[in-house]
Amino acid sequence: MNRVIDTNVLIVANNRESPQASPKCIISCIKWLKSFEKSGILVIDSNWLMIEEYQNKVNSSGQPGVGDAFLKWILLNRSNPHRCQQVQITQIAEYEFREFPKSESLQKFDLSDRKFVAVTLTHPQRPAIANAVDSDWFIFQEALVANGITIEFLCDR
């Protein structure tokens, strides 16, 4: 199972800084990340934009939360093609990517999440993007789907 994972999944799994996440959502993210570590393949950008965002939000030492442990897993496995696959995306400006759809319906989509969309559209299998509580994925779901993006919602809306 290839996936692109939004940073909010790691944050929610840490049970910190996510007041909008229900206890059920937190448990769902924890279980999902632990399962993913065993059999999933993370798709990331080769420029480290996603990893840098993860590092800004969770602890790369792997402690004390599950999201922290997952970042450590990423750092240990980033060069293992059986666990992580890297794709090259073209950054035009800070939050602008050549691979992001030029769709009118996505003009107001969260700038910081555009890299996840660009990564998905660059990968030949177009993996789904895992999301926990980030509302943009819900708000723009129809426009994203129309542009070839699938979102895996780990929590109820």
Description:
This protein is α/β, with parallel strands linked by helices and 157 residues long. The chain has a single domain, classed as Rossmann fold (3-Layer(aba) Sandwich). It is built from seven helices and seven strands. It has helices at residues 7-13, 23-39, 49-57, 66-77, 114-122, 135-139, 141-146; strands at residues 2-5, 41-45, 84-87, 91-93, 96-97, 128-131, 151-153. The strands form two sheets. The protein has a five-stranded parallel β-sheet with strand order 3-2-1-6-7, with helices on both faces. A two-stranded antiparallel ribbon has the order 4-5. A hairpin with a 2-residue loop joins strand 4 and strand 5. Helix 1 (7-13) crosses helix 2. The protein starts with a strand and ends with a strand.
Number of domains: 1
Uncertain residue ranges: none
- Derived structural class: alpha/beta
CATH architecture: 3-Layer(aba) Sandwich
User: What's the mean pLDDT score?
Assistant: 96
**Strand order in space, largest sheet:** 3-2-1-6-7
- CATH domain class: Alpha Beta
Task: Give the overall shape.
Answer: globular
Q: What is the H/E order?
A: EHHEHHEEEHEHHE
| Main pleated sheet | 5 strands, parallel
Spatial separation of the terminal alpha carbons = 23 Å
Total DSSP helices: 7
Q: What percentage of the residues does DSSP assign to strands (E)?
A: 15-25%
Q: What value does the Rg take, in angstroms?
A: 15 Å
Q: Please report the total strand number as a whole number.
A: 7
The percent range for helix content is 40-55%
CATH topology description: Rossmann fold
